Amino acid sequence: MSSDPAVRCSDVTLSYRRHPAVHHLSGSFAAGSFTAIAGPNGAGKSTLLKGIVGLIRPDAGTIALEGVRRSDIAYLPQQSALDRGFPMRVVELAAMGLWRRFGPFRRMGGAAMRDVEAALETVGLSGFEDRSVGSLSGGQFQRALFARLLLQDSRLILLDEPFTAIDARTTEVLLDLVCRWHREGRTVIAVLHDFDLVREYIPQTLLLAREQVAWGPTETVLTEENLARSRRMQEAFEDDAELCKRPAA
Ligand code: ADP
Ligand code: MG
């Protein structure tokens, strides 16, 4: 699996207008690993994903990718960040996952269309092809976004709270798909809130509270002690949010 991507963070600090949201993070997401990012609200979880995708540049340290180009990462943003008002059909939204291979939708041939239909079937949206995305329920919209991710066929997949506010049946279908991606040797990183789900399905966890609290096998990371520490660290950061307590390396 040496061609699979790894993500290496070296003393990474990510900030908004010089207010650090992720502090001095070092560590690696190994090739083919499946990692949950957990932590309190405001811990920097979404910020770290944006840093990996390249939407935010580190103001210190580096995030190095191996085996994948930044532009080839499959990224699902947190749902609140998405605008569902755009006039687009389900089939067009899913087909966006193929743009890198085929160019704009109109130029796609029959084989590509069959791929799109198969992806929609995988996520349980057969028959929804011509529905406008604005008419979908939250769970159906998330399924359509997963069809797009599936078609992207990326070796590195980043998911930001993919199952938050999603019905149980949809969660089951999409979690199954994510576990399949992991079995296929893809590198998967997912921000998740449901510790029970993480303990059951996700082998590795990074617990974040602006800085790393713990990073490794899930059962050693998600201990009561570490969770309590993450809450204390997060509260301390909120008390003096503008200070960087450790010097940059
Ligand atoms: P999490 O995903 O762990 O809940 P975020 O990464 O979204 O946390 O946010 C980390 C910190 O950065 C929070 O204090 C948040 O208010 C701040 N933040 C997030 N996005 C922005 C933004 N676009 N501009 C300014 N500050 C932001
Ligand atoms: Mg977030």
UniProtKB/TrEMBL annotation:
GO molecular function ontology, one term from the record: ATP hydrolysis activity
Name a Pfam family for this protein: ABC_tran
Q: Where is the signal peptide?
A: none
Which controlled-vocabulary keywords does the entry list? ATP-binding, Ion transport, Nucleotide-binding, Transport, Zinc, Zinc transport
Q: Which residue intervals define the domain ABC transporter in the entry? A: 7-235
GO terms in the biological process aspect are:
zinc ion transport
What protein family does this chain belong to? Answer: Belongs to the ABC transporter superfamily.
- What name goes with this protein? Zinc/manganese transport system ATP-binding protein
